[in-house]
Amino acid sequence: MSTRSTLSALVAIVAAGGLLTFILRSALGGPPTVPNQADFASANKEVAVKGKDERVPLPELRGVAGNGIVEPADRETRVAGQAPGRIAVVHIKEGDQVVADQPLLELEAATEKASLAAAEADLAAADAELSRTLHGRIRQDIDAADADADAAKARAELSKGTLDRISKLAEGGAATPDELDRARRSSEAEDMAYKAADARRSAALAGSRREDVLAARARVSGAQARRDQARAILDRLTIRAPIAGEVLSVKVRAGEYYSPGAGEAVVMGDTRVLRVRMDVEERDIGKIRKGLYAYITADAFPGQRFPGRVIEIGRRMGRKNIRTDDPVERIDTKILEVVIELDKREPDQGTLIPGLRVVSVIDDKSMN
């Protein structure tokens, strides 16, 4: 018998033995085991948890509960500058109350200030020129132009008399043709000088021309535009508060180089009234409406409830805004944002701060 045939026979014997063993166990094993009361007690026993469970469970109630985060009225305002530069002065610190348009910080601006001063000087010169053009010459200028015209007239009459006398002498042969020609040319020149002086006198008496006034006004407009441009460039180097509120965070220091692309320089918000932005799961949105009573709790203030009212309900489902430290938390749940405005805090209550994670509850007593 070959080796292959021997191996096949052994495999067949082992398989038959295993099948026979399974049949014998099934026949002799009896009915399935039925658990007794001791087994139930052992399965339901409670195991003590060492340490404290840091997870904050949501309250069990018939209303709506969800995680939320404290924020200022109308959310936080992240203030950034319009131009890069080195920070010269920081006027505020965290916790300060500021008014709208108050300077928060300034960038170095020596060059821009010099440009503004030069533009203002140019504007002053253009204004003076326009004033002179509109009001015409002063009385002394007019008198001088009148005197010049009278003098030119006298010289013209004198030259004409000289020309007449030399013409008579030339007729008798007492003056040469060259002398006569020089006298004639001199008389013509003095006559033209008199006409020019008389025209200047008329212009002084008549005042400025319309074209001169328009040109002077155009120069003033150009100087004003350059002044406004220099002022706008300088103003871009001052970061101002867009709203009245509290300074929550200052992220820059004097001497640092600031660039708008690096992010905001100051975070602020109106903390006179605080709000809570609550995540409501989609199965509960039918229970929500404006005006419902709500309250929040926080680990930082155990045993305290901060009451409020629902003032705003989102119009679109979205992803969760608040993440907890629970490792089994579902992050793919769709939620609806609900804003709760808290009542004004009592003096003996703890101080909530923006960014604090809380548990928000819309109480079932208001859902009748």
Alpha-carbon distance between the two ends: 92 Å
From the alpha-carbon coordinates, what is the Rg to the nearest angstrom? 50 Å
SSE string, helices as H and strands as E: HHEEEEHHHHEEEEEEEE
Mean pLDDT: 81
- Helix count from the secondary structure assignment: 6
> What profile does the largest beta sheet have?
6 strands, antiparallel, barrel
Given helix and strand content, the structural type is: alpha+beta
The helix content is 40-55%
Q: Regions with pLDDT < 50 over 5+ consecutive residues?
A: none
What is the approximate shape? elongated
CATH architecture of the domain at 64-83 and 269-366: Beta Barrel
CATH topology annotation of the domain at 64-83 and 269-366: Elongation Factor Tu (Ef-tu), domain 3
CATH classification class of the domain at 64-83 and 269-366: Mainly Beta
Strand fraction band?
15-25%
The number of strands is: 12
Q: Secondary structure elements and their pairing?
A:
Elements: H1 3-28, H2 37-43, E1 64-79, E2 85-90, E3 97-98, E4 103-107, H3 110-135, H4 139-171, H5 177-206, H6 210-235, E5 238-240, E6 245-250, E7 257-258, E8 266-281, E9 293-297, E10 306-313, E11 335-342, E12 357-362
Antiparallel strand pairs: 1-8, 1-12, 2-4, 2-7, 3-6, 4-5, 6-8, 8-11, 9-10, 9-12, 10-11
